[in-house]
Structure formats: C-alpha cells, structure tokens
Amino acid sequence: MKLFPFAVLALAVCGPVAAAEIKMDDQSQLNPKATGKPAFEPPQESDLPDNAYGKLVQEGRAIFVNTQKYAGEYVGNGMNCTNCHLDQGRKADSAPLWGAYPMYPAYRKKNDKVNSYAERVQGCFQFSMNGKPPAADSHVINALSAYSYWLSTGAPTGQELPGRAYPEVPQPKGGYDIAKGREVYAAQCAVCHGDDGQGQKAAEGYVFPPLWGRDSFNWGAGMHRINTAAAFIKENMPLGKGRTLSDEEAWNVAAYMNSHERPQDPRLIDGSIAKTRDKYHANDGVNLYGVEVNGVLLGQGIK
Amino acid sequence: MRTTDRLLAGACALLLAMQAQAADGQKLFTQGGANPAAMACVTCHGANGEGMAAGGFPRLAGLSAGYLNKQLEDFRSGARANPIMQPIAAALGDDEMQALSAFLAAKPAPAAAQANRADAAEGVGARLALRGAWERNIPECVSCHGPGGSGVGDAFPALGGQSAAYLSAQLNAWRQGTRKNDPNDLMGHVARSLTDAEVTAVAEYFASLGQ
Predict the structure, then answer these.
(1) How far is A207 from chain B, CA to nearest CA, in Å?
(2) Do A202 and B144 touch (CB under 8 A)?
(3) pLDDT (tens digit, 9 = 90+) per residue, B77-113?
(4) Per CB distance under 8 Å, which residues of A are interface residues toward B?
(5) Would you call B189 an interface residue with chain A, using a CB distance cutoff of 8 Å?
C-alpha cells in the first residue's frame, strides 16, 4: 500500500518519456516500383458483414476519416488521416491503404530493420499527426489495421500493386521556384486553405486542413519533402481537380508550402537542427529542413 | 444662416445619414431599395430571410456576408443568370448590397444535423454527400460545404436548410451553364458529373438535414 504513491509518480514520470519514444524513425520515402494502371478495386462498404468484424472495420474507418474525434488523444495537430489519403484511404495513387497493408512487415536495407504495419501507422501518428503513437495492441491500431486489411480483400501479399503511394513527378529542369509557387498558391489554393496556409474551420474543426503552422504535419512527416508533396498535390489538388496542374506548378507550390515553419521534427538530436538534418534530412529526397530560405533558417519548429 | 444653425443642421443631417445607414439592411429587406426595381426581398425570401420552398426562393438568413454579397454582384454582372434576381440586383447600389448582406448574415441560421464522413451513408444522396464518387472525381460534398453542409467561410455556402427545389435548381443551372460564378469551376465540374437521379437524391438529402 505504501508503494502506491510511488507507482503514481513513476507513471507520471514514465508516461511522457514513453510517449516520446520514436516508433519508426526511418520516415524516408517509399520507392514503389510497380508500373501500369491501377486496377485493384477495394470492396464496397455495403459488402461488410453485420457482425463484430464489420463493426471493427467501421470503427477503423471512422478513426481514419475523423481522427480528431475518434483518436484525439494521439493527435497533436488539426489533421485527419484521410486529409492525405483521399477517399477514406481508397483512392489509387493517393497512398491507399490497400496498397500499403499487404506490403508489411517491410524490410529496409538502409537501416537493416523490419517495420510492422502497426509501426508504420504509429509513425504516421508521430509525424503526420504530430502526436503520440497508440500502443501496438491498442484499439486504435487494431481498428485501423482491420480497416486496412478489409480494404485489401483479394490483394496479393508481398507483391506491390500499381497505385501504391503517390506517383512521382519529375523535378522541373531549372529546379523549383518558391516565388512562382506563391502565385500558384494564391490563384488555386488559398480559397480553401486560407491566405496564410492556416486552413479553414467549421463548427467541429478543420474542413480545409492547414498546410503549415502549428496545426499542420511536423518536419519529420513524409509530406515535408518537396518531391512527395509535389506528387501528392499533382495527383489530388485542387480538391476534385487532380492532374490539372503542370509538373512545374506542382513542384513550385509544394516548395512554397514547405518553405514555411511547422512543428519540430520529434527526432531532434541534442536540440541541434544541423545534427538532425545530417542524420535524417540530408539524404531524404528534396527538403528544406535546416536550410536557409530568404535569410531565415527553416526547421526551428513552433513553440 | 447663422453658424450655430448651420452646425445644427449639419449635425442633424449627419445623424439622419447615420440612422439611415444603421437601418439600411432591415429597411431595404422589408421595403426595397432606393430604385423601385429593387423590390422588397421579404416578399419572396420570407419575413426572416428563411426562404420559401414552394417558390424555389432560397433562405438567406445566416449565410455568410461575403457569399451573399458575391451572389448579388454575380447576378448584377450576369455571371449568375436568373430572370428574377438579375433586375433586382442591377437596381441595388454597392452600399445597399453590403448593408443587406451584413443584415442577413447576422440573422440566425436554421439548425441542421452535422452529418460527417464518419457517419453511415445509406442511399444515393447520403453517399454523394458523405462518401463522394471519386471514380468520377466527385469529392464528398461535406469536404467543401462542411459537416451537414453547414457552410465554410465566404466561398462555400450552407446547403442544409435550403429546399430540395432550390438546391436541385442550382445544380441544374451549373449543368446547363446558366450559373458559372464559382471560383475555378470548383463546383461546376462536380455538378456536371452528376446524373439527373443523383441531383434529385442529393438535393433531397441536404434539404432533409434542415428538418
């Protein structure tokens, strides 16, 4: 009985420490190789059985489209999973869950590690959602895994399907141009994402998610890479009008977006942007973490 | 005139002008504009701007001022064609439009159910609203119009609390090209991808949320 206060203290101290542990520290880009037109079709919602399995899948779907409400304790920004994985994680070329689930556990030569699907999803909570990873055996991970498993019904395992990830967009010959990106932003994006990338809310929360600033994804998230953002944007934005921007416009506006400050990379080493850049950003696609733009060092995070 | 009189007269004129300014929205709404062609809005849009479903007259109460003002300008310029509203808008001055928009935006919006993407979606209308039809590049209507179609900012109007007749008339106006005032064709391409049956179903869906 006497130990009780100690246990509480230990919990209080260990809680935040455990939460700060990085679940999947390699967030470098996927490199899908399958080519050809996406042909896989995930099952219809109406096909879901009316039993415990169907219920768990629906709970996973609800978490995916309204993460704020159904897994809010693990989220540190204003985002929902579906903001970057469109059509509830079903849309081909928008990093669909059916393109992901059958490819795990995944081996990474780079660090000679194997990552489970749960770890991949935990990573998304820590970086894209700037939050805390739910435990691997938690309801949130179970429900999201069940939803992904169901979407993958009929897909082969360990065999990459066309439509996985976001299709790469070649970098413009002359490089990217942040000033031109600003013009694209004003003409094509601000009506929804706001004049300063802050997004727009209705009663319940963000309808148009923020593209930078406190409530957006952090510097460790895959979307902070200009090449990944360009690929996402070209395929999906402006909403409902994907594939209407030129490659150049997509790169320029992605660079403009990712030249703004956002929450710090949770893998920050010894408080040093330079060390963190060396270890995690220097060889990860095209990004501006730890780079000076217009006289300002990026990667400082938001307090 | 002596100076004091002049001052007094000036002050009175100013006061009157201020009163007119303050009363403008309400008065314009119930009595019409300075130009008689700007008919009293109340006749068609209802005593409190709640609209009249039977006539296809939309509710205006609680829509954002920016949206209302833009629609009046669009009727005036012809970007939004309508034989009833065009002459009315053409007869309104800029200041009158602004006063009307501010007055109407301040009125309470009808309560509408906050249906969102996490909710079940049964039937054609609910599926379009909450799931979209992405194989045709149609996003969920609520991803632009907000939960329950409650409206977002100045560019995305509320759909909940409008009648099915009005909503379907607007979708058809885009399909026929008589309404083309949306920014970057964001709404137009969605409307043009819908079938007749879908227009009816989704209009009924949003109308039912306001009841």
Answers:
(1) 6
(2) no
(3) 999 999 999 999 999 999 999 999 999 999 999 888 8
(4) 45, 61-62, 65-66, 69-70, 82, 86-88, 90-91, 187-188, 191-192, 200-204, 207-208, 238-242
(5) yes
Residue A200: φ, ψ to 5°: -140, 140
Q: Which of A84, A90, A93, A207 to mutate to test the interface with B (most CBs of B within 10 A)?
A: A207
Among chain A residues, the shortest Cα distance to B155 is held by A191
The token duo for A101 is 């689930």
The domains located in chain A, with CATH, are 19-30+39-151 (1.10.760.10), 178-297 (1.10.760.10)
- Whether chain A has a CB inside 8 Å of the CB on B151: the answer is yes
Amino acid at site A252: N
Query: Nearest CA of chain B to the CA of A60: how many Å?
Result: 10
Q: Inter-chain contact B150–A62, Cβ cutoff 8 Å?
A: no
- Cβ pair A212, A197 in contact under 8 A: yes
What contacts B96, CB < 8 A, 6 or more positions away? Answer: B24, B28, B33, B34, B38
User: Predicted ipTM?
Assistant: 0.91
The two tokens of residue A300 are: 């400082």
- Flag whether pLDDT at B164 surpasses 90: yes
CB A60 within 8 A of CB A148: yes
Query: What is the gyration radius of the CA atoms in chain A, in angstroms?
Result: 20
Low-confidence ranges of chain A (pLDDT < 50): 1-19
Helical residues (DSSP H) of chain A, grouped into ranges: 4-20, 52-65, 67-70, 86-89, 97-100, 117-126, 139-151, 178-188, 190-193, 226-236, 247-257, 273-276
Give CB contacts under 8 A, 24+ apart, made by A199-202: A199/A78, A200/B152, A200/B153, A201/B152, A202/B146, A202/B147, A202/B150, A202/B151, A202/B152
Tokens of A62: 């609800």
**Phi and psi of B80, rounded to 5°?**
-120, 115
Q: Which of A48, A85, A191, A243 should we substitute to test contact with B (largest number of B Cβ atoms within 10 Å)?
A: A191
The two three-digit tokens of residue B180, written as one number: 């083309």
Which chain B residues are Cβ-neighbours of A65 within 8 angstroms? 116-118
pLDDT digits (tens, 9 = 90+) for A43-74: 999 999 999 999 999 999 999 999 999 999 99
Distances, alpha carbon B161 to alpha carbons A272, B24, B69, in Å: 54, 26, 19
CA distance A231 to chain B (A): 17
Q: Which domains does chain B have, with CATH numbers?
A: 3-105 (1.10.760.10), 124-208 (1.10.760.10)
DSSP-derived pairing of the beta strands A200-202 and A106-108? unpaired
Distance of CA B139 to the CA centre of its chain: 22
Kindly list the residues from chain B whose CB atom is less than 8 angstroms away from the CB atom of residue A66.
116-118
